[in-house]
Design brief:
Elements: H1 3-11, E1 48-53, H2 59-76, E2 81-86, H3 91-103, E3 108-111, H4 120-128, E4 133-136, E5 146-150, H5 152-167, E6 175-180, H6 186-199, E7 204-210, H7 216-230, E8 235-240, H8 243-255, H9 271-279, E9 285-287, H10 290-305, E10 314-316, E11 324-329, E12 332-334, H11 340-344, H12 351-354, H13 360-365
Parallel strand pairs: 1-2, 1-3, 3-4, 4-5, 5-11, 6-7, 6-8
Antiparallel strand pairs: 9-12, 10-11
Helix pairs in contact: 2-10, 3-4, 5-6, 7-8
């Protein structure tokens, strides 16, 4: 793990939902199917935990989620093993990866689904094989044993409220473009629902897109279409569901000669997004402290592998499963005004990482240097 990841893991630790688990101690007696994954569970000894992440386009998965999950598993059980694969945004690949984990007889699976619906059959197979599945970040369908993510509707509300506040009176005089996430990602639907609950009736949505695969080039193409359809002078703001798409959107706006740029939202506090905020190109991002989410997933997985009930703060329902034990983490709005008190203070990035020579003047203006 690189230095800023280690610092982030330490600095955010006070906010993580701690779960008391013995490193490799015995759990309650494992019996038959207890409704949390099916079949007999291991009581002690090493566990093999399958970790399936959806893609490597978004920086968070390889830079934060994977190393943090692996770190926490090792803290809980030094001889436990994490078997990691990445689906690279291909749902059929992820189904094959799930089937491979089942064949290998891993003890528990942490799954961040590419397509929440299409993976349901594989989740059912895992359950039938006695392998509990922790849904990570996205609530997959099928007999899920536990779930952790952020409050995804709140993410959309945070983005929309920030956008409306920045628009002020302009909300009455123009139109916004909504660049939503991938239609196969259930989180995208929740971000959109949360955002619309704030935006509806308060600003006109000129164009709204569901962006295949969360791809920045798709967002760029859609934004160019919106500019051609609506006219650049009529677009007062852009709701972008994440930072990667915000980059494609801003490239399209700049390419069309839009100056000044309208406020553009984002999510994930990616380094490039933070740098665009410093440069005045992107208005805001949503910071989701990755450590609490990653640690919670690891803790749930080890508990389930031991035959214990996972610690959770609430329950959620998917389209197929009711009452899934869940822990949801609150997101944080980040703008230039609180950048120093959030992602920098928490050690997500060092000032030097943000303030490269390209951004030195903007960082000086923002008081970061």
């Amino acid at each position: 793990m690189n230095t800023h990841l280690r610092r982030a893991a330490v600095a955010v630790a006070a906010t993580a939902m701690a779960v008391s688990l013995a490193a490799c101690g015995s759990a309650k007696e494992a019996g038959g199917d207890d409704g949390s994954g099916g079949g007999e569970k291991k009581k002690d000894g090493p566990l093999t935990i399958g970790l399936l992440l959806p893609e490597d386009q978004t920086a968070r998965y390889e830079n934060f989620d994977r190393p943090l999950i692996e770190k926490r598993v090792k803290e809980l059980c030094s001889d436990c093993e994490v078997s990691y694969v990445n689906a690279k945004e291909d749902a059929s690949t992820q189904q094959q990866q799930m089937n491979s984990m089942i064949t290998k007889k891993v003890d528990v699976i942490i799954l961040d689904a590419v397509d929440a619906k299409s993976i349901a059959g594989s989740v059912t197979k895992a359950d039938e094989a006695g392998i509990p599945v922790v849904a990570y970040d996205r609530l997959a369908e099928g007999p899920i044993s536990a779930y952790t993510s952020f409050d995804n509707e709140e993410v959309g509300r945070v983005q929309a409220n920030a956008l409306l506040e920045e628009l002020g009176d302009k909300a009455d005089s123009g139109q916004i473009v909504m660049m939503n996430g991938s239609p196969t990602d259930p989180n995208a639907a929740m971000f959109k629902k949360g955002a619309k609950s704030v935006l509806d009736g308060k600003v006109k949505v000129g164009k709204s897109y569901d962006t295949t695969g969360w791809k920045p080039d798709e967002a760029n193409k859609n934004m160019n279409g919106a500019l051609a359809s609506l006219g650049k002078e009529n677009i007062v703001g852009v709701y972008s569901a994440n930072d990667g798409m915000a980059g494609g959107i801003i490239t399209a706006l700049k390419g069309a000669g839009v100056d000044p740029l309208p406020p553009v939202t984002g999510q994930d506090a990616e380094l490039a997004g933070v740098q665009r905020i410093v440069a005045g190109e992107q208005f805001m991002t949503v910071y989701k402290p990755f450590q609490p989410e990653a640690y919670t997933a690891a803790e749930m997985a080890v508990a389930l592998g031991r035959g214990e009930d996972p610690k959770a703060e609430t329950t959620v329902d998917s389209a197929t499963t009711k009452g899934v034990p869940a822990t949801l983490i609150k997101p944080i709005s980040v703008t230039i005004d609180n950048l120093e008190d959030t992602v920098i203070k928490d050690g997500l990035y060092e000032v030097e990482e943000i303030c490269t020579p390209k951004y030195k003047a903007a960082c000086e203006k923002a008081g970061l240097l």
